[in-house]
Write a structure and sequence with these properties.
- This protein has four helices and eight strands; from the N terminus they run E-E-E-H-E-E-E-E-H-H-E-H.
- By secondary structure, the chain is of the alpha+beta class.
- It has one domain.
- The longest helix is centred in the last third of the chain and has 26 residues.
């Protein structure tokens, strides 16, 4: 696997990666500023560094473009190649994510409230809980992607942020 230095950044030449991510938030309320910011940061971080390879489709070759959406109560990963041609689409049940996403939003609310008024030690404790729930969501996503996509924990964490953002109800 080679590397290319671009403006001080080292980028992997690995083709098992995402180069574009689109979220279909049609029908969802306008995101709060903090949700929009988390979504933008997750997409930026994902595009900078990720591992995403489609499994079981012989003609599937990356890099990939991902359209992430929710349709008929299912999470849809619509994967395209670099040219934009469809590669594979798969659906995941949302039921396995509901509780962890609910917990994640609750602890995020606590964290954002704490930042305004609590001492650093209490903020840090809440943030540790938030990271733990985020890791649990990423672990569930890794399990659900098994056999469909080869990925890693860092990529799953960022994807979980996007999955949670698609659940934001305002």
């Amino acid at each position: 696997m080679g590397c290319l230095c671009v403006r001080g950044w080292i980028r992997s030449m690995n083709t098992d990666r995402l180069i574009d991510i689109k979220l279909d938030d049609t029908g969802l309320p306008k995101s709060a500023d903090i949700i929009a910011q988390e979504r933008a940061v997750a997409i930026f971080d994902l595009l900078e560094d990720n591992r995403f390879g489609v499994i079981g489709i012989e003609e599937a070759h990356g890099p990939y473009r991902l359209n992430l959406s929710i349709h008929d109560g299912r999470l849809v990963f619509d994967v395209h190649n670099e040219a934009g041609d469809p590669v594979h689409a798969f659906h995941l049940s949302l039921s396995t994510f509901r509780q962890v996403i609910k917990d994640y939003f609750q602890i995020c609310d606590s964290y954002y409230s704490a930042v305004k008024s609590l001492p650093p030690a209490q903020i840090e404790a809440i943030d540790m809980g938030r990271r733990g729930i985020h890791n649990e969501g990423a672990r569930i996503l890794l399990e659900r992607l098994r056999g469909k996509v080869a990925t890693d924990m860092d990529t799953a964490r960022r994807l979980f942020t996007l999955v949670a953002a698609l659940h934001f109800k305002g």
